[in-house]
């Protein structure tokens, strides 16, 4: 299947999390701030909407003892659970089973915001240009989920493969539900864990491992005609991301734009192949939010555009292949700061598009 046609045109789009406990209200705020490309809200005030727990259902051996959640890989039923997982995965991917009724479909128990989002789409105006969803990225997920010995599942080949396939089809399911609304679908994989690549915590993880994980989940989004993005909220080894099948690279350009420019050839090549930069020029750290406004952030983006021109990216390419975003989600800051981030994202986008 061909991917859906989409031109970014510096439209505003958010990252996902908000610091409130009302999914309907969160959805309303999102549609008000970014009516062109709304997304579904994740509310981390609810434990089940944390980055790991929200996407863990369906994983064989998923076990909770007290407050501890882990994968019990040595239980008597584990081998049978793994076999059932792969049988269901094959049935879904080969068209013999319904994705909507599979373990890979999300439910309102852990993703109530997604269903609030779908309902709002049906009642929204024609201003919607595209839709955005998000899933925890495979590297972050598989290095965060632990087995019964407190060892990350990433370091077990079988468990890592299960984690990647689970996330891939959950992303595919989201993409399909958005495509059913007859709008382009953008599905971002949130990878804060990649900020640690190269550190001692990631010493045994190679670039090829990361690329293989990302390419597999991106392929599931592409199979549903969506565009796949990767969001890293700090610095990382950007060439690894550019060298995958990802369509959108989302990063904190407020703090790390200079780090991105350390790789001019890869960045220019990414734009040349049609890649989209989700430019996180809107800060989400309270002290930075307090000192910025729409004028200062628009000026900051124009300075960044000038530097992209200097390395060889064409001006019309920059405009058509850029989204304006916050640098990260706002689930861990105050509501007052979060609302300012939403407002600034929409206003900076509006000013950039008005001047184009």
Describe this structure in a few short sentences.
By secondary structure, the chain is α/β, with parallel strands linked by helices.
Structure description:
This protein is α/β, with parallel strands linked by helices and 356 residues long. A six-stranded parallel beta sheet has the order 3-4-5-6-7-8. Helix 5 packs parallel to helix 6. It is globular, with a radius of gyration of 20 Å. The model has no long low-confidence stretch (mean pLDDT 94).
Strand content: 5-15%
Please give the largest β-sheet.
6 strands, parallel
CATH topology: TIM Barrel
Low-confidence blocks of residues: none
| Shape field | globular
Series of H and E elements: HEEHHEHHEHEHEHHEHHHEH
Q: What is the top-level CATH class? A: Alpha Beta
Distance between the termini: 33 Å
Mean pLDDT: 94
User: How many separate structural domains?
Assistant: 1
CATH architecture: Alpha-Beta Barrel
């Amino acid at each position: 299947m061909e991917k859906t046609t989409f031109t970014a045109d510096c439209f505003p789009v958010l990252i996902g999390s908000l610091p409130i406990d009302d999914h309907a209200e969160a959805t309303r705020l999102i549609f008000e701030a970014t009516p062109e490309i709304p997304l579904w809200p994740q509310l981390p005030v609810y434990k089940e909407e944390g980055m790991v727990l929200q996407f863990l259902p369906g994983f064989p051996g998923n076990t909770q003892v007290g407050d501890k959640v882990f994968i019990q890989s040595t239980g008597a039923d584990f081998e049978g659970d793994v076999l059932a997982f792969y049988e269901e995965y094959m049935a879904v991917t080969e068209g013999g089973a319904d994705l909507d009724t599979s373990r890979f479909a999300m439910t309102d128990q852990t993703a109530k915001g997604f269903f609030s989002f779908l309902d709002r789409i049906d009642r929204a105006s024609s201003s919607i240009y595209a839709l955005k969803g998000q899933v925890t990225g495979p590297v972050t997920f598989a290095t965060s989920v632990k087995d019964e010995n407190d060892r990350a599942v990433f370091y077990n080949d079988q468990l890592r493969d299960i984690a990647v396939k689970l996330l891939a089809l959950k992303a595919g399911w989201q993409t399909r539900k958005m495509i059913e609304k007859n709008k382009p679908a953008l599905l971002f994989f949130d990878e804060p864990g990649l900020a640690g690549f190269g550190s001692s915590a990631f010493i045994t993880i190679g670039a090829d491992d990361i690329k293989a994980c990302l390419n597999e989940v991106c392929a599931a989004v592409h199979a549903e005609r969506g565009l796949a993005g990767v969001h890293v909220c700090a610095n990382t080894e950007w060439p690894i991301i550019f060298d995958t099948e990802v369509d959108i690279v989302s990063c904190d350009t407020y703090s790390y734009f200079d780090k991105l420019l350390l790789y001019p050839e890869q960045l220019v090549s990414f734009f040349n192949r049609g890649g989209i930069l989700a430019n996180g020029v809107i800060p989400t750290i309270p002290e930075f939010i307090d000192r910025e406004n729409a004028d200062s952030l628009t000026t900051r983006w124009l300075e960044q555009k000038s530097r992209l021109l200097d390395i060889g990216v064409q001006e019309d390419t920059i405009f058509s292949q850029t989204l304006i975003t916050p640098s990260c989600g706002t689930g861990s800051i105050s509501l007052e700061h979060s609302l300012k981030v939403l407002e600034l994202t929409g206003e900076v986008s509006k000013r950039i598009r008005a001047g184009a």
